[in-house]
């Protein structure tokens, strides 16, 4: 699995299961060989090897990007062969494959990754309740943004209106290591070819293949996992909090 989301309101965590074509939700206190509390699975779900997802515990929804360029939205408490309650899909959306995704339930936004071609990617920002073939309300990407391949899931800090993104470096060997890998921070109000407000990493930095990001808001820390280093690193980053 390449994604996991924790729901602090209902004390549950949800993961995509590629081989089972399913979305699994477990109790937060699950331990050992415990069955999921709920499983979304079946032909009506339209799931196709899901890799990423995010949970909106405020509005009780699960957002799942697909490999064929769509975002499916399910009820958080859905179980079995349930159809999405709405979908974002179509040429206007600019969605073009499974990528990291994050929902901001406070500012009612949905942030989805997308390919921009020529080795670059972009952030597509939608309204949380968008449905159908809708244009993003904003698109962040371009040479100044230094957005290359995404490292892993995004983190969103709604009260500050910020998006934290792990970015692998450019070039064909970015999967191995890169001196240009970093974590960048953008505003939810950014649009166009906008560089990040802050970065961790870059040339001579410690990061090589950053993946997941978690926020420790109380202590003003950003926690980053790095696949190449096989490590979890904690950065004290009061500026973003």
What report would you give on this structure?
This protein is mainly beta and 241 residues long. The protein folds into two domains: 1-88, Thrombin, subunit H (Beta Barrel); 90-241, YVTN repeat-like/Quinoprotein amine dehydrogenase (Methylamine Dehydrogenase, Chain H), CATH 2.130.10.10. Helices cover 0% and strands 41% of the residues. The protein has no helices and 19 strands. The chain has strands at 5-7, 12-17, 22-27, 38-41, 54-56, 61-65, 70-75, 86-89, 101-104, 109-117, 120-127, 138-140, 155-157, 162-167, 182-187, 198-201, 210-216, 221-226, 231-236. Strands 1-2-3-4 form a four-stranded antiparallel β-sheet, with no helix packed on it. The protein has a four-stranded antiparallel β-sheet with strand order 5-6-7-8, with no helix packed on it. It has a four-stranded antiparallel β-sheet with strand order 9-10-11-12, with no helix packed on it. Strand 5 and strand 6 (61-65) form a beta hairpin. It starts with a strand and ends in a 5-residue tail after the last strand. The mean pLDDT is 92.
In short:
With 241 residues, this protein is mainly beta.
SSE order and pairing:
Blueprint: E1 5-7, E2 12-17, E3 22-27, E4 38-41, E5 54-56, E6 61-65, E7 70-75, E8 86-89, E9 101-104, E10 109-117, E11 120-127, E12 138-140, E13 155-157, E14 162-167, E15 182-187, E16 198-201, E17 210-216, E18 221-226, E19 231-236
Antiparallel strand pairs: 1-2, 2-3, 3-4, 5-6, 6-7, 7-8, 9-10, 10-11, 11-12, 13-14, 14-15, 15-16, 17-18, 18-19
């Amino acid at each position: 699995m390449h994604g996991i989301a924790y729901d602090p309101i209902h004390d549950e965590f949800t993961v995509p299961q590629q081989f089972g074509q399913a979305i699994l939700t477990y109790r937060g206190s699950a331990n050992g060989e415990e069955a999921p509390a709920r499983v979304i699975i079946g032909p009506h779900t339209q799931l196709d090897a899901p890799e990423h997802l995010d949970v909106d515990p405020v509005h009780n929804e699960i957002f799942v990007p697909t490999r064929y360029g769509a975002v499916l939205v399910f009820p958080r408490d859905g179980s079995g062969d349930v159809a999405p309650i709405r979908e974002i899909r179509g040429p206007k959306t600019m969605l073009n494959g499974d990528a990291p995704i994050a929902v901001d339930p406070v500012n009612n936004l949905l942030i989805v990754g997308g390919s921009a071609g020529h080795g670059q990617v972009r952030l597509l920002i939608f309204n949380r309740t968008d449905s159908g073939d809708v244009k993003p309300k904003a698109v962040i990407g371009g040479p100044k943004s230094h957005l290359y391949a995404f490292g892993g899931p995004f983190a969103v800090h709604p009260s500050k209106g910020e998006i934290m993104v792990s970015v692998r470096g450019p070039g064909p060997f970015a999967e191995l290591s890169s001196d240009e890998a970093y974590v960048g921070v953008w505003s939810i109000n950014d649009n166009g070819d906008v560089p990040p407000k802050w970065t961790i990493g870059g040339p001579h930095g410690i990061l090589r293949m950053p993946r997941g990001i978690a926020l420790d808001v109380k202590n003003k820390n950003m926690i980053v996992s790095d696949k190449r280093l096989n490590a979890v690193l904690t950065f004290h980053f009061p500026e973003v909090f």
